[in-house]
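ingest -> validate -> predict -> emit
validate: passed (alphabet ok, no gaps, 134 aa)
predict: started
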Amino acid sequence: MMATNSHQAPEQQPRKMPPSNEGETPEEEQLQQALNHLDHLYAKCQDMRSALARMITSMPEAIPSNGASPEACFNEVVKVMRNTGTEIQEFTALYTNEETKKVLEQAKKSRKANPKGIKPWYETYDPAWPDTTS
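emit:
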């Protein structure tokens, strides 16, 4: 049976943020929710970086070595393609939704109002980020 690509590796799953304290101000709670949303978006983005590779590596499993018909193999490949397409649609919807736009716009305003101390982030800072130099 062919593996599906709907599985997320453990390092790609969103991290659980600590529960908000009752003493937090509404602004702190809003910032915590924004961080949770961005963390989820980041995990989905990492998953997208491996979607094509997962799709291609699952194809050899569809080769009829177990006596399966070519039609059954084709159906398995189509299933993997649909799963990948669904993942792409989910990421696109998450990235373009109003909450993401709001969070990114707020970050842009904050960065513009207080640029000191905000350092750029590079993929080299995260050892789990896929190597883009090869």
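The chain has four helices and no strands.
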